Amino acid sequence: MSARLPVVAVVGRPNVGKSSLVNRVLGRQEAIVQETPGVTRDRSAFAAEWSGTQFEIMDTGGLEPGPQGLDVRIVEQAQVAIDTADLIVLVVDAISGPLEDDAVVAAELRRSAKPVIVAVNKVDDPRDEPAAAAFYRLGLGDPVPLSALHGRGSGDFLEKVVARLPRQTTDIDRAWASMAIVGRPNVGKSSILNALVGESRAIVDPVAGTTRDPVDSYLEVPTAEGTRELRIVDTAGMRRQVQIKDPIEYFAFLRSRRTLSRVDLALLVVDAAEGVTAHDQRIAEEIVEHGRACVIAINKWDLATPEVTDRQRLERDLDHELRFLDWATSVRTSARTGRGLDKLMPVIESSLASHRRRLTTALLNELIAAAQERRPHARTRGRAIRVLYAVQARVAPPTVLLFTNGQLQTDYVRFLEHQIRAFEPFSGSPIRFEVKVRPRRNASP
Known about the structure:
With 445 residues, the chain is of the alpha/beta class. The chain is built from eleven helices and 15 strands.
């Protein structure tokens, strides 16, 4: 397997500007930035490049001595980032100067024996540079003054970063496929992610909305030829946009929507105990609009009512409320007990295969011709409307071009889709149709 990109972990006390520095390195707004300590919770990794050197930069939650509650998990995530990293950037605050917490974190980093760069942030003016010298006492080498907000000193900082990264000797392979885990807050997305990858990759907490940044993980999927990697993105819970008042949640929602545009498949997690809600429907609509393959995980099945009739009613509700996802396969799961998780990967693989499937032009036209013989399109102003020719122009999602002599009614396009799926189900994947109307020839004068 090809080597991964070298990893740079950005750590430090809360609210010293770690996410701002990550955004400065990336040259775009990726990590959530807010003047509130503890905004960044999970490890969030992004691909970056400087002077031709590619690396992965990892934003982390703040390191705090003696944390309690959810903060314990945040520190655990940051420590995992330290263990994973090839280079650690300790971000400190030039305005506050070195604090006791900085010294405790620095001692932890020295024990790790990993290369460390001390980035002294908030040096917005050349006259403030002498303040950086105070951080020599951390015992981690020369402090680098910079301003993540204004970009001052960021070039010198990045030169030091790439100079201390291990050299890449092999090419980086793209993942075989990518999947986003989406759903309402607190339906068990992170628990499913952790169960799939077999480690505590995302923070799991009963407080709704714990995950805010998309988190990438890699899962090795066995094949007849060996293994291939599936990139998995756990996203923040997608609330209805009109109900988002917290600006942090708003940015997380936008980032979750953008995640759908860059993955192949969405694993939609629905809470079995609550059933399908209007929120679930809106998320499903987003999946359809983005043309993603989809698998539905009916999670917390162990908490659903045990009565058979109630469970049957739940499944009927699922079919009805998500009827525009009738091509998606649903799996009953329990991330807590492990039920059904072994069935997820085969369904995901078959759905991805459907998403990339292509029908030959000859077969497609044969299916369309048979469908028109079975049920001709309604006449428009006395004129027969027909599909003259069809071709599958694209995959992911499968996209069929229909060349016609008139505009097709929406219900007839659905009929054609059903006829195609009767032969080739395309299970787990939407099929898109584009109608190209042939212009009528002008009558001779």
